[in-house]
Specification:
single chain; 14 strands; about 30% helix; binds zinc ion
């Protein structure tokens, strides 16, 4: 039989809502058998490894691969937003996040999204293309393959957008009118005369600046939808 041990755990900040009420209260004892990594034990408490910003074993910084021994104290801290946005953050979104994908694309962020990705595929593409995986599925984020990801806390797409903008300090990097909401390809300026025959009368009357998606050919202009989005961002 494998020997049994007990270690003391404490989680902090926005990791707390992921725990059971007893575990949220402060330090708690966690019994385990055999040789276990910090990753395994943190995830046994339902916290995916992608949510861990820093980990301390008996007060010393440690990695998730560290082996936890009986009697040790483990403190688990959440990820902190970076001081400034990384130059070109790239995401892949789980099937249930279509509205969030559209919002992030509208802000210019590169988002892979399909409503029929399998978990295997999401994890594999995230790894191969160094994309941040966004999901509400904890199991998916617990896969070793997933290096970077974020467990969305909210069910509401506007709240989810706020979460992601905050988590990755994205607001200063937003570039609306850059990317196609439907296919994620880039938009390129197009002369009004070239697409005039495709426009509705009111659009033709009130707008002069247009862009076209290099992928699907959709035409974009800074109409009411765009204005609404700008207001949403400013409100966040
Ligand atoms: Zn497109």
């Amino acid at each position: 039989m494998e020997p049994s041990y007990t270690a003391t755990f404490r989680f902090y900040g926005d990791l707390l809502p992921l725990l059971s009420p007893v575990q949220r209260a402060g330090y708690f004892l966690y019994p385990f058998k055999g040789r276990q990594s910090a990753k395994h034990l943190v995830e046994a408490a339902s916290v995916p490894h992608t949510e861990v910003g820093a980990l301390f074993i008996d007060g010393q910084p440690a990695g998730l691969e560290a082996i936890v021994r009986g009697g040790q104290q483990v403190d688990v801290l959440p990820c902190q937003p970076p001081v400034s946005a990384e130059p070109d953050p790239r995401f892949i979104l789980d099937n249930h996040l279509g509205r969030l994908a559209a919002s992030l694309r509208m802000l210019g962020f590169d988002c892979l999204y399909r409503n029929d990705y399998q978990d295997e595929e999401l994890a594999a593409v995230a790894e191969a293309q160094a994309r941040i995986l966004l999901t509400r599925d904890r199991r998916l984020l617990m896969r070793k393959q997933v290096q970077r990801g974020r467990l969305l806390r909210s069910l509401d797409s506007r709240q989810q957008l706020a979460e992601i903008l905050q988590r990755y300090t994205l607001k200063p990097a937003a570039r609306p009118f850059l990317r196609c909401i439907h296919c994620n390809d880039l938009l390129t300026p197009v002369a009004k005369a070239e697409i005039d025959h495709l426009l509705e009368p009111l659009t033709r009357q009130y707008f002069d600046e247009f862009r076209r998606c290099i992928g699907c050919g959709r035409i974009y202009w800074k109409g009411s939808h765009y204005e609404k989005m700008v207001q949403v961002i400013e409100g966040l």
